[in-house]
Write a structure and sequence with these properties.
By secondary structure, the chain is α/β, with parallel strands linked by helices. Helix content is 33%, strand content 24%. The strands form four sheets. A six-stranded mixed β-sheet has the order 7-8-10-11-13-12, covered by helices on one side. It has a five-stranded mixed β-sheet with strand order 3-2-1-14-15, covered by helices on one side. Strands 4-6 form a two-stranded parallel ribbon. Strand 12 and strand 13 form a beta hairpin. Helix 2 runs antiparallel to helix 9, helix 3 packs across helix 5 and helix 3 runs antiparallel to helix 9. The chain is globular, with a radius of gyration of 21 Å. The protein starts with a helix and ends with a helix.
């Protein structure tokens, strides 16, 4: 009688192979917005969360376990108050996170083309710009297509007029925005045969994202900013998943997309991961924070306690 041992060994080996090398058909999107120049935790009792120092370490670990991930930001990387040293270092800190696409928000656009060009060099990540005519954003593109595990994700990025509504006229006059409904509609037509998933980054606020999802077919996911809304669970409107990750770096948004063998979306969901004090710090970002403290003399006294 032939032994069944070889057959059993083969079965076990196949199981191990599938566990180790099996194809994960899920796609993940990590998203951030409205960092507002927050390099580190404020150590506030009512907001016991981290910022870029926690985010960079969290994302590094996440990518080790989930290589089928893209990383995006919907703008307002720097502060509104114009702290030059801090804003410069915040953009350098961003370079330690492998962003696939970044949309610039109003807090970047108000500084003009030269400032933006310098900031983009420090960030060293792709900039998507679908509807900002001016200031001119060098090396930006109206659409980006990123591929993970054979799935093609098209990324667009638009800024809504409400984002600049309350600035002085002298500031608003230097910012020229194309009608976002018109430009996104054009892009969707172009992308229908090029991408499996269309992701729209917006900088206009949650309420307007809801209206956009209800009235503009063809988008799969909207990741917003500007209103600094903390959507603990992503909302689905008109088959469009809408997400936003609060402010100051407190959270990283995580979207999970399940697809079938034909790269068709089966299910979309999203939630926020809090950057808690217990999480590790990214060593290079901590060096940037130390540099900021040395250059400015500004030290968070709560941290020493």
């Amino acid at each position: 009688k032939m032994s069944t041992m070889p057959r059993n060994i083969i079965f076990v080996m196949l199981m191990i192979f599938n566990l180790v090398f099996g194809t994960d058909r899920n796609l993940y999107i990590l998203h951030t917005n409205n960092t507002n120049g927050a390099l580190e935790n404020c150590y506030c009792v009512d907001h016991p969360y981290g910022a870029i120092e926690k985010r960079a370490a969290f994302i590094k670990t996440w990518l080790e376990d989930h290589p089928n991930t893209i990383i995006v930001d919907s703008g307002d990387i720097i502060s509104l108050t114009g702290k030059t040293v801090k804003d410069s270092l915040a953009s350098i800190a961003y370079s330690h996170i492998p962003y696939d696409a970044i949309l610039l928000g109003d807090q970047e656009l108000i500084h003009g083309a030269d400032y933006i060009a310098d900031m983009i060099k420090r960030i060293d990540a792709p900039i998507v710009n679908t509807n900002v005519r001016s200031p001119r954003i060098k090396k930006s593109r109206p659409q980006l297509i990123v591929e993970r595990n054979g799935i093609k994700i098209a990324i667009l990025g638009v800024v809504g007029p409400v984002a600049i509504k309350y600035y002085p006229e002298s500031v608003k006059s230097a910012i020229d925005l194309q009608d976002l409904n018109e430009v996104v509609t054009q892009q969707i037509k172009d992308l229908e045969q090029k991408a499996d998933i269309i992701l729209l980054l917006t900088h206009q606020g949650y309420d307007r994202d809801l209206k956009l999802a209800a009235n503009l077919p063809g988008i799969d996911i909207i990741i917003g900013a500007h209103s600094q809304t903390s959507l603990r669970s992503a909302q689905e409107i008109n088959n469009v998943l809408i997400a936003q990750a609060g402010k100051e770096g407190y959270y990283v948004g995580i979207i999970k997309i399940e697809v079938d063998a034909n790269n068709q979306i089966v299910k979309k969901s999203g939630y926020l991961e809090a950057m808690t004090l217990e999480m590790p710090d990214h060593p290079l970002v901590m060096e940037i924070i130390e540099e900021y403290e040395q250059k400015t003399g500004i030290i968070n006294r709560r941290k020493s306690k």
